[in-house]
Please model this.
Amino acid sequence: MRELINASENGKKYTASEVLRNIYVFDYEKTSEKDLHWFKVEMVGINNENTDLLDFAQIKEYLSFVAPVPYQNTFIFRTEVEKHARLISYHIDEYMIALNGEPIFKKYTTNFKTSKGEDEVFNIAFKEIYDSHNNLLAWLWIGVSRFKAVISRDCKMRGIRLRKENIQIGSEDALQKLFKEDRGHHYFIGEVFAVSKDLIPNSQRDYFNENATRVEFEREMRRYFNNELSKIYYEGSAINSAYSKIDNYEKKQAELQEKRAHGDFIDTSHLENALEEVKKAEEAAQKATDELEKKKQKAENNPDSVVSQVIKRIEEKRQQPVEKQKQIQNVQQHSLEQRRVDRLSAYNKRERKLISKIFGIIVKSTDEKTAEMIIQKIEDELQ
Model:
């Protein structure tokens, strides 16, 4: 092929048919199973510039998202996708493809990583996209998660992939340009199945040819992405943030009780600073609680909405609240001096007082976590 193309560039012309006839070979096998249809592709004579084509893992991963193959069995929502396709009378083209004898499947799973930890798809939602004459242009499914944060780059299934005849069009980010924010696309996992015969892949198969149908498709997709999906990930982010503030207050309150019980405060000023931090956390938690109540009341009007599902799922996944601590104002501070006596009993009263003063300076000069680390190190060395 390369020789013929180079010859064409040097003036000798070959048609596409002539090039093809010179580079491919067909072979046939007789079989008694007349309904058995298949074909086999072999790549021979790959040059040094294209050795990636021999990387089995890389090619398999590529085909698992690009090729029209079935979902793997471990993707528990595959039956829901297939059921919805039948409901709207759409046939998902699927073929059994093997690479070096190993079958290939779409590598969708329910678990994935985000920039703020693990998340999971616990449900899926569907949407049909119609043109101005109510003709079906496309339909899609998205995974419903807690929308904790943007999905990590190393998650190969992130993004809403575009497909025609179940073959991926372009890269995983082919539809990213239709979001008003680039990051919006990376909150989701899903697929868009183009249905209209006028959505025609271009020669590079990285998008559709420009025509009136593509214009309508993009307009409706933008409307859905930026009016519905953007609200979902914004709401998801706000809900997660609100619960984090509530948990942060409970954590700080529990830490305060524990430090008091062990006499871990250096002096009164140290205690007052800690009390102020807890008070700020409490105020933030109360504000977050009020915001959550408003969102819950709104979600009650539409219990099947994605936002309502997100709230319910987060509440289910949150850890059970710890046993209620006594109110801060009712807990007496353990003797500050007793802490010095217990841990630094080898030193006299004057020396302990000096050490406590040094600890107080450390507390005022740096953040609490760093101060505690330094103080603990000093105590270990002095014991």
Summary: The chain has a mean pLDDT of 86.
